Automatic annotation (TrEMBL):
Taxonomic lineage from the root: Bacteria, Bacillati, Actinomycetota, Actinomycetes, Micrococcales
Keywords associated with the record: Acyltransferase, Transferase, Tricarboxylic acid cycle
Family: Belongs to the citrate synthase family.
Name used for this protein in its record: Citrate synthase
Record-annotated active site: 269, 320
Organism of derivation: Agromyces terreus
Catalyzed chemical reaction(s): oxaloacetate + acetyl-CoA + H2O = citrate + CoA + H(+)
PROSITE patterns recorded: CITRATE_SYNTHASE
Amino acid sequence: MSDQQQAPEIYKGLAGVPVDYTAVSKVNPDTNSLLYRGYPVQELAASATFEEVAYLLWHGELPDERQLAEFEEFERSQRGLDHEIKRVIDEIPLTAHPMDVVRTAVSVIGAIDPTTADDSREANLEKSVRLFAKLPSIVSYDQRRRHELDYVEPRGDLGYSANFLWQTFGELPELPVVSAFDVSMILYAEHSFNASTFTARVITSTLADLYSAVTGAIGALKGPLHGGANEAVMHTFDEIGPGEGGAERAVEWLDAALAEKRKIMGFGHRVYKNGDSRVPTMRDALERMVEYYDRPDLLELYTALETAMGERKNIKPNLDYPAGPVYHLMGFDTETFTPLFVASRVTGWTAHIMEQNAANALIRPLSVYNGPDERHVPEGR
Ligand SMILES: CC(=O)SCCNC(=O)CCNC(=O)[C@H](O)C(C)(C)COP(=O)(O)OP(=O)(O)OC[C@H]1O[C@@H](n2cnc3c(N)ncnc32)[C@H](O)[C@@H]1OP(=O)(O)O
Ligand SMILES: O=C([O-])CC(=O)C(=O)O
C-alpha cells in the first residue's frame, strides 16, 4: 500500500462489529442479561423445559399445551438412530475426538435425508427437530462404545433430558440430576452471533443446506476458545487435582499458568466483560450437584480458582466454567462435554439458519492485502 493511501480500519476478529439483525436472542453486557425471544434465560431455566425452549427459539413463542404435545410426539418419534449412522460411527476409530464423531454423524444424516435440498421453512423445521432428537442418541452411543457398552435405545416415555441421561448411563436418573442437566441445556441453547452460529449463518448465506451449516458450526464449536472450553476446564481441574488441599493448589497452579502466559479456560468472554449472564444459574446447578454427589472439594477448587483469577486478572468465568464440573459429576467423559454443548446449541444454530434463509444476503467481507507487490514469474522458468 502506498504511503498516500489511507490505511483502512480493520476490525480484527470482527470485535464490536454488528453484521445483521436477529430476533432470536439479545445479549446485553451492560445489564448482564440474555433474552431468548424476549424472555430472560433465568426465567426459562426456572420454569420451562428444554423442549419448550427449543420450540420458543424456532417458533418465536412458547408452545401451548396442544403445540407442546404435538412437538413432543414428533420429537420422540425421531430419537432412534438409523443403521447407516451407527455403522458410520462404528467405523470411526476410538482415537477420534467425540466432536469428530458428532460432526461426521450430522453430515451423514444430511447425506441420507431425501429432504436435504428442500430449504423451505417447513422442511428446515423438521430437519431441526430431527437433529435435536437424534443428537442424544449419537452422543450417548459414542460415549458408551468407548467403554465397550451397548447402545441404549431411546425411551418415548421420557422427556428430553431424562432420556439423554438414560441413554448415556442405562439407568433412570433422579430428578435433581435431570433438572440440572435440563438447566444446562437451556443455558447453552443460544447466544446471538457467537463464532459457531456465525459460521452456520455464513454457510447458509451461500444457500447451502441446513445440515452443511450445522456440520460447519460443530467444527467452529470444537475449538477451546469457544465450546471446547468446557472440556478444557475439566483438564485444568484434573491438572490441579481436586480433593484435599485443592483450593491451595488451585492458586499455585494459576500463578504458574499466568506466568507462562497461558489462557485460563472457562474465563473471559468477547461480549461480557463483567461476567457471563448465565453463570449464576449454572453455578446454582453446580452447588446442587456438588451436594447431591457429596463432592464439596470440587466446589472449593472451583471457588478458589475463580477468586484468584478475579484478584489477579479481574476476569470472570463464562458458562463453560460451571458446566464442565457439572457434567463431570454426572458421569460424562470429559471429551463428551462439548458434544453436549452441540446437542443444546443445535436449537440456536437452526433458529439462526432459518432466520438467515428468510432474509438472506451472501456474507462476504473484504480483506486488505498486505502481501508482496505485483511481480512476475521470471521468463524461462
Ligand atoms: C461458551 C463460550 O464459548 S464462552 C468462551 C469460552 N472460551 C474460553 O473460556 C477460553 C478462554 N478465554 C479466552 O480465550 C478469551 O477470554 C475469549 C477468546 C473467550 C475472548 O477473547 P477476546 O474478546 O478476544 O479477549 P482477548 O483475548 O482480547 O482478551 C483481553 C485480555 O484479557 C486476557 N484474557 C482474556 N481471557 C483470558 C483468559 N481466559 N485467561 C487469561 N487471560 C485472558 C487476554 O490475554 C488479553 O490480555 P492482554 O490485553 O494483556 O493481551
Ligand atoms: O457468545 C460467544 O461468543 C460465546 C458464548 O458464550 C456462546 O456461544 O454461548
